[in-house]
User: Which sequence fits this backbone?
């Protein structure tokens, strides 16, 4: 696959499941420059979360809006991540962001939107809007195409207002999610490294 170069300026840019850079890489590139991110997804999938610690270092606020949170499904996904040494770090990072208050989660069971979208804001305000299926892994689970698009500050500002309208009508579920993550971590403590001193 040949890399696709985004157009100069703020022209919309189309991505699909074959795009290089990928949706995940595009999301990460804007995340690392953002100070606030607003994400609206139909369902929270812990198994699909892929955040690098360096990507969220400068992030002050991450607002995640979803239609509903299924505690049982969330717990099962958290258990699976906790047992996977390669993906456990994602679970711990989510728990840390929630515990620090930087991650806020609300559910809007009476709301709705289509498709998923994320708004990235920098110091100067809304900077970019990413619209489309928020699926980070490859290959995509369907045969495709999986279309998404990247837009500039004007579209980002417009969708920030729409997000805030949805957010105001939603209810806080961050505490419930954090509770699931903390209980899961307690059941699966991080393995002690070989050669490290035992706790007294």
Assistant:
């Amino acid at each position: 696959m040949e890399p696709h170069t985004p157009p100069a300026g703020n022209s919309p840019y189309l991505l699909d499941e074959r795009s290089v850079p990928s949706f995940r890489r595009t999301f990460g590139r804007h995340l690392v420059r953002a100070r606030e991110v607003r994400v609206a997804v139909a369902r929270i999938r812990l198994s699909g979360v892929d955040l690098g610690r360096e990507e969220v270092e400068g992030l002050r606020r991450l607002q995640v809006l979803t239609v509903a949170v299924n505690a049982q499904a969330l717990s099962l996904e958290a258990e699976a991540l906790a047992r996977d040494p390669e993906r456990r770090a994602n679970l711990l990072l989510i728990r840390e962001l929630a515990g620090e208050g930087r991650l806020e989660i609300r559910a809007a069971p009476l709301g709705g939107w289509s498709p998923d979208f994320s708004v990235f804001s920098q110091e100067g305000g809304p900077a970019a809007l990413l619209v489309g299926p928020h699926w980070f892994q490859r290959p995509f689970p369907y045969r495709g195409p999986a279309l998404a698009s990247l837009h500039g500050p004007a579209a980002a500002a417009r969708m920030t207002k729409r997000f805030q309208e949805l957010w105001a009508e939603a209810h806080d579920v961050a505490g419930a999610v954090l509770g699931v993550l903390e209980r899961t971590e307690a059941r699966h403590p991080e393995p002690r490294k070989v050669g490290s001193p035992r706790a007294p």
Q: What stands out?
A: The chain has five helices and eight strands. The longest strand covers residues 125-131. The first helix runs from residue 23 to 31.
